[in-house]
Design goal:
It is a single chain. This protein is α+β, with helices and mostly antiparallel strands. It contains three helices and six strands, in the order βββαββααβ. Helix content is 33%, strand content 40%. The strands form two sheets. Strands 1-2-3 form a three-stranded antiparallel β-sheet, with no helix packed on it. The protein has a three-stranded mixed β-sheet with strand order 4-5-6, covered by helices on one side. A hairpin with a 7-residue loop joins β4 and β5. α1 packs across α2.
């Protein structure tokens, strides 16, 4: 896996993945050209976990129609301002969803499949919750 980051101006950079997908990142909160690198970590975590949950539920033949994952984090007050706590809350929508299977999918993602979650849990307290919405 590879990536490349190129400086544009001020604290704005473009990132390009090894598969050719790009994103703009900005270290200046006031410019609004893109998320900060730390926000990108949270987006990656939310994406990784959400992909797992959808995939696991689909394999289990659950009629999942939508998943929205809220990711909230706390950071250290002094440099390096690492994440100290991260919480993911999954809102899983579908018809006749089995709540036990939804909980198990979240658990499997957190403990076995989501590389981002497992890696970040080495540095921060990562917790998960979920709800089923009909």
């Amino acid at each position: 896996m590879e990536a490349r980051v190129k400086w544009l101006e001020n604290l704005t950079f473009t990132g390009t993945s090894g598969t050719g997908h790009g994103v703009v990142m900005d270290g200046n909160k006031d410019t609004g050209f893109g998320p900060s690198p730390m926000e990108m970590l949270l987006l990656g975590l939310g994406g990784c976990s959400s992909i797992d949950v959808v995939h696991i539920l689909q394999k289990g033949r659950e009629n999942v129609q939508d998943v929205e994952t809220e990711v909230k984090a706390e950071r250290a007050e002094t440099d390096p301002k690492v994440f100290t706590k991260i919480h993911l809350h999954f809102k899983v929508k579908g018809e006749n969803l089995n709540e036990t299977k939804v909980g198990r999918a979240v658990e499997l993602s957190a403990e076995k499949y989501c590389s981002a979650s497992i890696m970040l849990s080495k540095a921060a307290e990562v917790t998960h919750s979920w709800e089923v919405i009909e």
